[in-house]
Amino acid sequence: xxxxxxxxxxxxxxxxxxxxxxxxxxxxxxxxxxxxxxxxxxxxxxxxxxxxxxxxxxxxxxxxxxxxxxxxxxxxxxxxxxxxxxxxxxxxxxxxxxxxxxxxxxxxxxxxxxxxxxxxxxxxxxxxxxxxxxxxxxxxxxxxxxxxxxxxxxxxxxxxxxxxxxxxxxxxxxxxxxxxxxxxxxxxxxxxxxxxxxxxxxxxxxxxxxxxxxxxxxxxxxxxxxxxxxxxxxxxxxxxxxxxxxxxxxx
Length: 251
What we know:
single chain; alpha+beta; eight-stranded mixed sheet; 6 helices; 13 strands; 16% helix; 33% strand; globular
């Protein structure tokens, strides 16, 4: 699963990757400076779409609200399970994801977090994972406009879910809670990520991207201090920075 990411970015960095991108005026700098973002916080997050030949950076909430979640009670009950979209369900006609497979977008991140279970340790150890030699990368995602309006803007609320696939060799060692089905977000090279939002992409092209497995040697990871906590790290560093756990064995 992918429920935790880091996003230490800037407008300049985003435009370096996507020159000419149209940026929603409601996006403030604090949206681009988050060392840890938790999916189930359901907070607005900058998402990239491609419409009428142009890239747009707009705010959507992480965690899809589907049409059947038409009451606050149904949203509260079901939305927490809609933060990830399994790649193997996108072409399954019985799946909700098949209904929105044309609504493709990108989640810009500077890294993701996953938790590693270690024999004899009470708590799992979080790791920060990113692409080598990339200051930022983009996670393929799907979006859907909720059947309700944003109370502040009066517009339909945009929501999104990150596409996940079977874990590669690195992520299998970290995300080891379910050894029968280890998973990871769909990591793509930058040029492939841009193809993901191309409205002219064929079914075969989508399948090819969904089946891509990022090689372990293109990624890097390191242990970090507890991320799902409001308390400061003992060393005062950022949540995504290396933390030396005493007695921690390497991968």
